[in-house]
Amino acid sequence: MIALADLSLGLKIPLRVMAAVLGTALAVTAALVTREYDEMSQNLEAHAKSLARVMANTLVAPMLHDDIWRAYEIIQSARDPAAIAPELQADVVLVTDLEYRVFVSSRPRMFPIGSSPASQGGAYGRLRAAMLEGQPTEQKVIDPADSAYYFVMSPLVADGVALGHVVLGYSKISFLPRFTGLVGRAALVTLLVLIVIMPIAWVSARRTGAPLLALADAMRRVPDELEMARLTELPGSRDEIGQLGDAFVRMVGELKHKQELEGQMLVSERLAAVGRLSAGIAHEINNPLGGMLTAIKTWQRHGSGDPMSVQTLSLLERGLDQIRHTVAALLVETKPKDRAFEPADIDDLLILVEAEARARSVRVAVDSSLTASLPLPATLLRQILLNLLLNAVAAAEQGGMVQLNAGAKDGKLRLSVCNDGEHIPEDQMAYLFEPFASGREKGHGLGLWIVYQIVQQLNGGLSVESEPGCTTFSIEIPYVEPV
Amino acid sequence: MLRCNLLRARNTGEVADHGAAFAFIIVGMNAEKHESVLSRRRMFLQSALVLAAMPLLPAGAETGALRIGLTPVFLDDQVSFLTRWRTWLERRLKRSVVFVQRGSYREVLDLIRGGKIDFAWICGYPYVRYRHELRLVAVPLWRGRPYYQSYLIVPADDAKSNSLSDLRGKVFAYSDPDSNSGFLYPQYRLTTLGENPTTFFSRSFFTWAHRKVVEAVGVGLADGGAVDGYVWETLAEFQPALTRSTRIIERSPDLGHPPFVARLDIPAAELQQFRAALLGMPSDTEGAELLRLLRLDGFVAGQPSLFDEIKRMATRVRRT
After folding, report:
1. pTM to 2 decimal places
2. Which of A111, A132, A450, B123 sits a CA distance of 20 to 30 A from A292?
């Protein structure tokens, strides 16, 4: 039973339909057979009754004339040894007088003339009682449960006076072959109908189950293969399965959105942690670093001038200076005083990257809708754009192009830089903005980290889209319009 | 449908079997007074029997035909044989011949005594009773002699009954009340045994033909029966299964074989011609073949004294 419950709908629905078809076919067949059986037994009874009536009428004269031989010939003529329908043949024909003695019978050895049929025992003993019941002139059908025969009795009536009875005994067994033949024919017809209907029912049931199976298959892919699940072809019908499919597509869409959101949050949190860490380290390094540099300056100003020491301290000073620069790059700090960003700043930047672009034969296109100055720190924005443009030029194909779009709308400055170089692989995306994460040999790996930090400090947003032939960095930074 | 018709026809008590049915139509063609009967009969015969009967209608079935009555003293239900015999007689006598068959000896006897038919093949018993109203024409030779026997038979599975006296209180089948072998002889035998023939058997009935006596005894409807020995022996050749179901327990002494007789006022020339035809059968190829089918050796003119024994038995039975 459990195995059946676990069966796929792809089999279960067709099997249930088959069972329904089979059940219907069997029920219809059974009904037909039952009806045919009733009709057959009614026909048989009607036939027996009419035969008994004809015989009773015909036997009146031989009975009155005591003509045994003629009576015998009459009852024999009613028997056809090569009958087509043997069940219509009376097995025993008895003609009895009023005292229930045999006048003549179709089986003289079993029922000799003058003997009482009751001496044969069984049902024959009870026929007498049945004869005396009811109207003496009416036909009677007696079907003793314990006898292999059933009997039709017709009274012999001359001028309203009963002379005796004609008793036709029919074998119940001879009825069986015809009935089994009937059942066999019905079974054959049912089988033929089933052979025609079954494949149709099977195919139709399979088609009914197919949308459910497709849906189940799509659901199995959640949550690991969301994209595959989303792309699975689902039924477009307006029935319940269609509605279920629509709901499923919506659910998968929302799941995917949530997954993306979680990914972004993970990246942001990590970047924030990295930011906090680098700020802490920078602070801890800057304090002693300042002290050390001040000490070296002091020594240079007041020192002995020993060439060896001068050389060593100079070396120390350059190393410490490099550390300071690096740390400064790690920790971008907003300068409280800065001028506003002008459209001309973009032109400046183009000049700055021109040399690099020419070296790689990359064309830099600009589409700027900026017309007025924006209340945003120009130095930081220039730093962002310069980093992005330099990255783009470096990433672009040899002889390719870089596109810069700039625009301001609804209190937000929108910048985007795109290049046609190789796209960024999926696995690098998550670490793209982290310091020293660059896969390139050139550069210190802090360019995007600086961009990220500046955008963070300006409460802006940052996104990357990368697909073959087009990698775009987009930035949104809000500003407050001066009143 | 045919069967029902047949049953109803039999119910009227006028037609015993197919043989009698076609005889009726033959007679009907000539006897106007049977017309109403004929029309009734026709409705019945229209089904199928009329087709079987048609070939039997002779071409010249007019008033001048020779009319010969037949009784079941031989196997008179062989239609094809009767056709051959009639054709042969017509060729021999150079006039048309009509065979007249009836359900009982009595009816044929009434016809010949009333002069309605010219000749008849009847039993020796009615011949001795009405010998002054009939003229003896010829007597068949069976096994070379003008004699035959009456057989008393019982069912083959009855091993106990060995004589007529063993059948006391049983059911007995006679063939015809005007038959010597099928009625008179057993009656006579019971009389000689000191029994009352009317009470000796518990039940008795007539089958109106010897062959049917054999049937009735064979199936056990009757516990015993009296039958024409010549018919029984002939049946034993044609339908051995029928006779094998019976057993002969007694044979009568030789008795005169059922003779051909003529109506009393038959012209002498016609009688001579018919007698000559019968007596000449063995010397004719077709005639000999017909005799072979009848299992007879020929005919002799015969003497009335051949039937003296039957006459004696009849007198004895009538007295009791």
Report:
1. 0.59
2. A450
